[in-house]
Amino acid sequence: MPTVVVMDVSLSMTRPVSIEGSEEYQRKHLAAHGLTMLFEHMATNYKLEFTALVVFSSLWELMVPFTRDYNTLQEALSNMDDYDKTCLESALVGVCNIVQQEWGGAIPCQVVLVTDGCLGIGRGSLRHSLATHNQRSENNRFPLPFPFPSKLYIMCMANLEELQSTDSLECLERLIDLNNGEGQIFTIDGPLCLKNVQSMFGKLIDLAYTPFHAVLKCGHLTADVQVFPRPEPFVVDEEIDPIPKVINTDLEIVGFIDIADISSPPVLSRHLVLPIALNKEGDEVGTGITDDNEDENSANQIAGKIPNFCVLLHGSLKETLFIFADSKKKSNLMMSLFEPGPEPLPWLGKMAQLGPISDAKENPYGEDDNKSPFPLQPKNKRSYAQNVTVWIKPSGLQTDVQKILRNARKLPEKTQTFYKELNRLRKAALAFGFLDLLKGVADMLERECTLLPDTAHPDAAFQLTHAAQQLKLASTGTSEYAAYDQNITPLHTDFSGSSSDRM
Amino acid sequence: MKIFSESHKTVFVVDHCPYMAESCRQHVEFDMLVKNRTQGIIPLAPISKSLWTCSVESSMEYCRIMYDIFPFRKLVNFIVSDSGAHVLNSWTQEDQNLQELMAALAAVGPPNPRADPECCSILHGLVAAVETLCKITEYQHEARTLLMENAERVGNRGRIICITNAKSDSHVRMLEDCVQETIHEHNKLAANSDHLMQIQKCELVLIHTYPVGEDSLVSDRPKKELSPVLTSEVHSVRAGRHLATKLNILVQQHFDLASTTITNIPMKEEQHANTSANYDVELLHHKDAHVDFLKSGDTHLGGSSREGPFKETITLKWCTPRTNNIELHYCTGAYRISPVDVNSRPSSCLTNFLLNGRSVLLEQPRKSGSKVISHMLSSHGGEIFLHVLSSSRSILEDPPSISEGCGGRVTDYRITDFGEFMRENRLTPFLDPRYKIDGSLEIPLERAKDQLEKHTRYWPMIISQTTIFNMQAVVPLASVIVKEALTEEDVLNCQKTIYNLVDMERKNDPLPISTVGTRGKGPKRDEQYRIMWNELETLVRAHINNSEKHQRVLECLMACRSKPPEEEERKKRGRKREDKEDKSEKAVKDYEQEKSWQDSERLKGILERGKEELAEAEIIKDSPDSPEPPNKKPLVEMDETPQMEKSKGPVSLLSLWSNRINTANSRKHQEFAGRLNSVNNRAELYQHLKEENGMETTENGKASRQ
C-alpha cells in the first residue's frame, strides 16, 4: 500500500504555537516533527513502503516521487517554503493523478493529509468545493472518492476544540464520507506541543503502519514472517456477511499444487512473505533488509545462520517444477490472496474437497507425473462448447440450411452427417415453434431430389424423400411426429450400408 | 456485492395466446442457391417467424449469455401462459441449462392460432411468476441454514421479464396492478410459511412486441416505482431482430455486463487456405473486467462508439501467442465470457482455439505506441475466462533477497528432499463425500493437513543436521513410517532396513555424518552409529502412536540396537583391524588383480549359505549388477577425506579453502564408493568377505578361478 503524504504549506501553517520554554514553534514545525517520526518508523519497521511527498497551497507540487529512500523524504521536509492559501481540492486532484500514473487503479493507497484545519477562503476552499459538490459534471468531478482503493488519514495540527469552534471538523468529516467512509481524522489531544503531536502520529502508526507478523506453518515446520504489504480486511457480501474477513496470523500450508494447474488465478492482492527473527518481547530483530545500523547487522548475521523454513520452501519452489519467481535476480517468497469463500477458483473446485493424493486409489498425477486431476470440468458445457443453434441473424439460419444441403448432395457418402445436421435443425425448430422452417426445408429436399443427376446413387433419392417426409410430419406439430428427443433416422434401404443383412 | 440481488431470480413469462402465432412480418431467406446450380430454378419463398418464435429465441439468447457468464447462483424460471400457466422448470441447479429449456419449449410447441382467445391470458403466467418468486432457491436455503439466527439477512428479490402483445397502455396498467396485488397476497402467505419467502423487491420488465410495420399501441416507459416492493418498466419493441437486440441490451443491464471486441485475429480464409485475414470477435463479460478503464476514464481506446451506454465496446488487440510456456501472471480478476455471435465463424475459431488450451494475451491499442498487455483470454476446464492483468508498476518490486534474510546464509538446505516432499503432498479433488469410521463426514482438506503434520514430525531442514536422511539405506523405512497405517509388507521392509543397518554397523561401513562445525576428524565410527541410531529412533518414536504396526517397527529397532556383548567385542576387534589396514594394503592389491566378475556370483552363494535374509539384502545392494537407485540423495562430505586426515594441529588457510571447495563439490555428485571407503586413497575391495571368512576368501577366490 503506497503512501502519499500531502502537506499543507499555506501561510496559516506558520501560525505560532505557544510552548513553554525558549523556542517558538510554528504549526508546520509540529507537522514536520510528526512526519519525521512517521518516516523514522517506516524506515525501520516498514521499509518496503513506497512514499511520495506532495506539498500544496493554492497550487500543488510533487516534492518527492514514490520512493523507499526515507532520507530523501526527510530532507524534503526541511526544505519546505511557505506559500499562500489552502486549496484542498486541487491538491486531491493532484494526488489522483500521481497515484494513477504510478500504480493504476487497482492498488490500494494511503493518503496522509497534514493540515491545520484552516480550509481556505473563497474559490478553491474546501467549503466552496463541498457547496458545489452536487453541481458537477463528469469533467470536473470531485476527486473523492479516490479512483483507487484508498484510506484518507487527516492529521490536524489543531485540537478538537479549535476545529469545533468553526465548521472545519464538519467539512473534514464530509471528506471522509465522500471517500466512502474510508479514512479517519486525527486531532491533537490537549495543548499543541511536540509530545502531543507524537502521540497523535503514534496513533496513526498503530492504525496503519504496524507490520503484519504471522507464522508460516507446514505441519511442524514453522517460521516467523512479516507479510508485506499488510493484508487488508475484505467484505465478501455486504448483505449476508457484512463483517470484513481478516487474515489469520497463522498461515498454514495445507498442500501443494503445480503452477500449471493454478494457471494465472485472479487474486485480491499479493504480498511478500519475509522471514523475521523475533526476540522474546516479540520485537522484530531483522527483516533481512540490509541496513547501515551495525547492531542490527550483527543481529541479522546471526539470524542469517539459523536455518529458516521460508528459505527452504523458497529454494525448493525455485528448484522444482513449481516455478515461482520474480524474473529478477533477487527473489523472495510471495503469497497471493484469493477472494475468501469456499471456492475461490472454479477450476480447482471447493477448497475443502482438496485432499492428499495418497488417499486416492491411484496417483491422479500418474506414475510418470504426466497427468493432472485439474482443471475440473463443469457439469454443463458453455454455449460455445456445445454447438448451440442460434437463428437470430438470418446468416445463422442460412448456414445451418446450407450445411444440410451440402451433405444432401453428397448422399449416400454423407448420410450420417446429413441426418445429424437435419436433426439439429429439427430440434431447434421444434423448440422455437418454427414449424414453417421444417416445411420449407422439406420442400427444398424434395426439389433436390428432382435435381439429382442421372449418375446419382439410387439411395440418395430414397434418403431425400424419406427426410422430407419426416420433416413434413414434424411440421404438423402433432406429438407423435414432433417429439423433441426423437431423431429422424436414415431410411433402411437395400442400398444403404454393405453390412446390412438382406433377407 | 450482493449475492441475492434482483438478478438471483429471473422469471420469464412468455405469452402463448393465439395472437402470438401471428407472423412477425420480417422475412428470412433460407434457400440460398449456390450460383452454378441456379439456372432455371426459382428459390423457395422466404419464410417468417411468428411473434412466438421471436420471443422464444430472444429469451433463449438472454439465457444463453447469462448461463455462459453466470453458470451458478443466477437462476431462470420459464413460464408460458395461455389458458393457464405452464411452468417449464424449477429453481434447482439441474434445471438451469439451455437443453432443459429447449426440450420443455418443444413440448409446449407453438401457440394454436385457432384456440379461443377469450380463455387465454398472460395474467395466468404473471400470477405463477409471483408464486414462483416466493419459492426458496437452493442457494437461499443454504445461506439461511448457514446464517442460523441471522437468516433474515438472506434477501428475496427477483425480476419478471414478461413478453406479450398488449392491447393498450391501460392494459399494461392492468397487468402491473395484477402483479402488485398478487405480490401483496403471496407475501401474506409466505409470512406464515417456512419454505416460502416474502418478496422484498420485484422488478417487472414488460415487453410489448408487435409485428414489423404495425403501429405500437403501447408506449415505452422508464423504470418507475409502483410500490416499495414493485418497480416496473415498459418496452415497446418490434418483433424479429429488434426484439433480440432489446433482450441483448437487457441482459447486459441486468447482469452488469460489458463488451470487449478482440481485434486483429488472424484466421485462415475458407476459400483460400494460404491467406489469412484479420477478424474481430465481440465478447460479453462482467463489467469489472474493464474496471481500470472505467476508473481512469481512458477514452482514447479505439472503437468505443458513443451510441449509448450499452453499445460501447472496448477494443483489445490479439497478440499471437509464441509458446505454451507456463507463466504465472499477476491477474487481478478473471471473468467468464460469452461470444455475442456464438455461431459465427470468427467466434467459433477463437473459442475453439482457446478451448484447445492456448492462451492469448490482449493488448491495449495506444496512440503513443507503447505496448501495454492488459488482459488475457484463457480456458480452464472448458470454460473461457477473460483475465485482467496488472499493467502498472508493482509495489513488490525490488524485494529484499532471501539470501540476505533470516536463514539466508545457511547453504545446505535439503532442497531436493523438500521438492520431493511437496510432490508427495500435492492435492487432488475428492468430489464424492467420504465418511470416517464414526460416520461423520470426512473433510479432504483436513486429511491433507493431517498428512502434512505426520510427514513433518521429524524433518530436519539442513543436510548437516541429519544422518539418516542422507543414507540411501534408510529410505525404505523413512518413506513408509510417516504413513497413517502400515501394511505387513511395510513392516517387513522396515525390519529389513534395520537389519541392513545392523549389518552395515558390523561391517563398520562409514556413515555420511556431517563434520560441519566440528574440528578434526569428527566423531569415531561407533559414535557415528550411535548418532545414527538415535536419530532413527527419534523418527520412529514420532510415529509409534499411529498404529500397532508402527510400534512393532520400534520394537525391532530397539531390539537390534541393544547388541549382545560378543557383538560389541567383535566391533572392537574390527576397529583394531581398521588401524592395521595400511599393512594389509599389499594383500589387497594382489586380491584386486585376481578379482573377476564371476567371483561375486560365487561369493553370493557362499554367503547365502546359512545366512538370514538380512545378508541377502546386503549382497544385492553391493553386488555389481544392482544399479544404484536413480534418485540418490546428495551426500555430505565424509569424515575421512585425506585432507582432514592431514589437518592436525593448526589449520592452514589453504586447507580450509580446499576443504570448503571439496565440500561444495562433493554435494554436486555422489562420491565413488571406493573413494569413500579408501584409506590413503586406496580402496580395499570385498572387505566384507574378509570379515566373514578371514583369509580363506582369497583362497576360495583362487579356487574358483581354477
TrEMBL record, chain A:
Family assignment from sequence similarity: Belongs to the Integrator subunit 14 family.
Molecular function GO terms recorded: metal ion binding
Localization per Swiss-Prot or TrEMBL: Nucleus
Name recorded for this polypeptide: Integrator complex subunit 14
A GO CC term attached to the entry: integrator complex
Subunit structure: Component of the Integrator complex, composed of core subunits INTS1, INTS2, INTS3, INTS4, INTS5, INTS6, INTS7, INTS8, INTS9/RC74, INTS10, INTS11/CPSF3L, INTS12, INTS13, INTS14 and INTS15. The core complex associates with protein phosphatase 2A subunits PPP2CA and PPP2R1A, to form the Integrator-PP2A (INTAC) complex. INTS14 is part of the tail subcomplex, composed of INTS10, INTS13, INTS14 and INTS15.
Main location per the UniProt record: nucleus
Lineage, highest ranks first: Eukaryota, Metazoa, Chordata, Craniata, Vertebrata
Keywords, sorted A to Z: Magnesium, Metal-binding, Nucleus
Domain of life: Eukaryota
TrEMBL record, chain B:
Main location: cytoplasm
Gene Ontology CC terms, in alphabetical order: cytoplasm; INTAC complex; integrator complex; nuclear body
Start and end residues of each stretch annotated as Disordered: 564-599, 615-650
Domain of life: Eukaryota
Location in the cell: Cytoplasm; Nucleus
UniProt-listed Pfam families: Mat89Bb
UniProt keywords, alphabetically: Cell cycle, Cell division, Cytoplasm, Mitosis, Nucleus
GO biological process: cell division; centrosome localization; mitotic spindle organization; protein localization to nuclear envelope; regulation of mitotic cell cycle; RNA polymerase II transcription initiation surveillance; snRNA processing
Keyword Cell cycle found: yes
InterPro entries reported in the protein's UniProt record: Cell_cycle_regulator_Mat89Bb (IPR019355)
Feature: compositional bias, Basic and acidic residues: 615-636
GO molecular function, one term: DNA-binding transcription factor binding
Keyword Flavoprotein in record: no
Family: Belongs to the Integrator subunit 13 family.
PANTHER family: INTEGRATOR COMPLEX SUBUNIT 13, SARCOMA ANTIGEN NY-SAR-95-RELATED
Record-given protein name: Integrator complex subunit 13
Species this protein is from: Prolemur simus (Greater bamboo lemur)
Gene of this entry: INTS13
